[in-house]
Amino acid sequence: MGIAMITIAISSCTEDTSMLGNTLVSESDQFTIVSDTFDVSTRSIIADSILARSSYSYLGKIKDPETGSYITANFMTQFSTLESEASNLFPPLSLLRGEEDDHADNALADSCFLNIIVDNFMGDSLAAMKMTISELDKPVMENRQYYTNFDLEKNGFLRADGLYKKALYTLSDLTQSDSLRNLNQNGTNYFRIKVPINDPYTDKSGRTWNNYGSYVMNTYYEHPEYFKNSQTFVQKVCPGFYFKTTDGLGVMTEVYQTQLVIHIHYMNDGKIINRQKAFIGNEEVLQTTNFISDKNTIQRLAADTRYTYIKAPDGIFTEVTLPVDDIKRGHENDTITSAKIVFRRMNDSSSLTDDLLSEPQYLMILEKDSLYSFFEHRDLPNNVASYLAVYNSNKNTYTFNNISGLINRMYDKRNASADWNKAVIVPVQVITSSSSSSTSSVAGVSNELRVVSVRLVGGRDNPYDPVRISVVYNQNE
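The structure assignment produced for this chain is given below.
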């Protein structure tokens, strides 16, 4: 009996494991992985302008080596004050009057300057440039969006009889030592354009001061409440300044910060104290950049159907029509686990070798219907309706590894609008933040305002392999 039982047990064993685990999975949950590829159509489209919100402002004029046309940048900035500093911006007025001015009601600043701190530039740092600096008559309010075609001068924001200054500058001043020519902050060299505004200044009440700094100081002594925060300072004291390129060619500067600097001195305990106060214009307050370029040239570029363009700040984007119906046909109940699309950059020797025209580092694909609202609402890429791709210099490509969420979203909203299956690829600037675990995440995204350009394989008359999207399905059985 024992021998018989062992024989039966051995004969019932098998090495076939194909059904192993099937009893643990419901029949409805079993699936098969399948893949397919689909052609994608692309074309260049033009945005009249892009949102002028960025961490940087831009100033200068360069010749686009790709088109031969000119790009000019002007910018406006406001200045900030901190509520924590409001009670100690300047020393007591009695110290500033001095013995010889003990009968005076006011104090005078020694000098006043506008410093333009440049983080980066394109072109020749020795190019001679001219600009004008104009005082605003009223603040540019933050209750609306400002695009790169917004002209403060045409819209009546400049004060007709206000501060107006002409300035000639080069980014590098070879008459100065390196230590003076470059500011060094956190190991990064910053160029500085220093413009004195020491001419007599007449404020709106009709009072004339020896310079703009004296006006700001005495407004502080008379109305310290105007300095309690940036909003009251902009509305009551200094609406801001407009920096306009008027002549010169060859450099485009990326302005990291603008400073309104007031220099003073006073006696304290028999000692002469020299002091300066800087009001800062940066991304914490409102800044706008106005770009001027040749629209006819832009139209000609976008009309070329042999490839597509992405170009900033001119606002040429690549529109992508995704074959959503084809992708979902026969797979209505299947799960799309991957939808990968690669955009190849065309080799362009002029763009690759010219320092004035680099490729964008980041591209973003998003629904065409949200092209403007995404940036206006300060949205972030969510890997459902919007995705980022980084330029791969080794492969000369931009890859969106998985836009399956976008495919599903478009399918769910099919025929809701004429552009329901269309997406747009735009160049963007990305701000990242690091965590304690040394990982970084996207903290902010804005339109790319630097001069960048890339031609992509695609377009109606594309002579190369078509743009394709590779899709992987989990096919329910």
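Interim note for the steering committee: The chain has ten helices and 25 strands. The radius of gyration is 30 Å.
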